[in-house]
Every structure is written in C-alpha cells, then in structure tokens.
C-alpha cells in the first residue's frame, strides 16, 4: 500500500518517513538544529516547493525542549511558535491551518507531530476537508494518503535510531528516507536513515 509521507509518534519516540513515487531522489541531512530533506546529488532539477524542507527540529521552549516534525515547511513555524511558548496543540493547529494542505495535483495533506520533554505528544493533519490535532497516548500514525486521519499504529522503537530504521522498513511502499526522534534522560536524540 502507498500511503505517501507519514509521521508516527508515541509519548517517548517518533519518526517521519519520506515515501515518494514522484521525487525518490532525496535524502536526509543533519544540520545544527534540524534534519532536512533535500535532493540527492543525482536528482533532476525541480522547482517543486515541496521537495526540500526541514522535517525535524528540536527547540528550547519556556518549559524545556520540544521536538516538532512533519512533511513540509510548516515544521519551521510550529517550532518557532513552540519557542515563543505556545502550547503544542496551538502551535500545531495554527501552523497547519495557516499553511493549509499542499496545493498540488493531489491536495496533499500536511502532517506533523510534537513530543515534549514532559512526555506530552501530539499529532495533527490538515486536509482539504479537515484540521485534526490530537493528544497521543500510544503510538499513532498519520499519512498523506490512505491513512490521513490519526490512528493507532504498532511501533516498537525505543531509540531514535530504531525509530528511523523501523519507519524506513515499514511495509508501506516507496521508502526514500526516514528520521527518528526519542526523548532520553539527557534530552532528545535524533537519527536518520537514507537507505544506504
């Protein structure tokens, strides 16, 4: 089954995976404060605005660190609102609503999740017909296609590296790369999987 890009989040761990039929020549790169999706060196040039973006950021908030991750440019305003002290629910809802679903041929939903260092996790999506933001008590997935409403999902990862690997190797078709995030006693750890 092809579900497109997806996020999965539990109270302690999460992941984001790029799955693509149209733009498979992409990879994740670790930057100082973010994991970024971008084209590989051999990728054909494109002016598509949805190909490159920060997909995961860990930011300092007034109450501690929080991780934000998702499938597009909305990750940055979510992270910025968290830094300003917005509750995670409001940061997700306002950013998803403001940027709205992607105006491509498929009306692709925007998806995102947050994990706070207090153990609170949230997941959200904005589609052409709905804005959904939910608190997460167990591993939950939302994808751009087929599974575009949050649903319970079996996810066993207990570290960032395991989360990236498990997301990359999920049964869904056309895996390109994956990012993992986990809350630890020393803060958040991140990992990436480019399938090499």
From TrEMBL:
Its EC number is 3.5.4.10. Pathway: Purine metabolism; IMP biosynthesis via de novo pathway; IMP from 5-formamido-1-(5-phospho-D-ribosyl)imidazole-4-carboxamide: step 1/1. Coiled coil: none annotated. Pfam families: IMP_cyclohyd. It comes from the Archaea. Keywords: Hydrolase, Purine biosynthesis. InterPro entries: IMP_cyclohydrolase, IMP_cyclohydrolase-like, IMP_cyclohydrolase-like_sf. Belongs to the archaeal IMP cyclohydrolase family. GO terms for molecular function: IMP cyclohydrolase activity. Residues 2-186 form the Inosine monophosphate cyclohydrolase-like domain. It catalyses: IMP + H2O = 5-formamido-1-(5-phospho-D-ribosyl)imidazole-4-carboxamide. GO terms for biological process: 'de novo' IMP biosynthetic process. This is IMP cyclohydrolase. It comes from Natronorubrum bangense JCM 10635. Catalyzes the cyclization of 5-formylamidoimidazole-4-carboxamide ribonucleotide to IMP.
């Amino acid at each position: 089954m092809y579900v497109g890009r997806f996020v999965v989040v539990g109270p302690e761990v999460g992941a984001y995976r790029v799955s693509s039929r149209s733009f498979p020549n992409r990879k994740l790169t670790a930057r100082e404060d973010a994991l970024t999706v971008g084209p590989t060196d051999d990728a054909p040039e494109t002016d598509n605005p949805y190909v490159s973006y920060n997909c995961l950021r860990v930011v300092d908030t007034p109450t501690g660190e929080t991780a934000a991750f998702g499938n597009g440019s909305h990750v940055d305003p979510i992270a910025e609102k968290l830094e300003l002290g917005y509750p995670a629910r409001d940061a997700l809802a306002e950013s998803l609503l403001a940027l709205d679903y992607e105006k491509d041929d498929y009306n692709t939903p925007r998806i995102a999740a947050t994990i706070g260092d207090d153990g609170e996790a949230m997941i959200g999506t904005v589609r052409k017909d709905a804005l959904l933001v939910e608190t997460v008590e167990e591993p939950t997935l939302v994808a751009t296609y087929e599974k575009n409403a949050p649903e319970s999902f079996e996810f066993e990862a207990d570290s960032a590296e395991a989360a990236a690997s498990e997301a990359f190797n999920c049964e869904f078709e056309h895996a390109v790369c994956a990012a993992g995030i986990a809350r630890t006693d020393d803060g958040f750890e991140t990992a990436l999987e480019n399938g090499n």
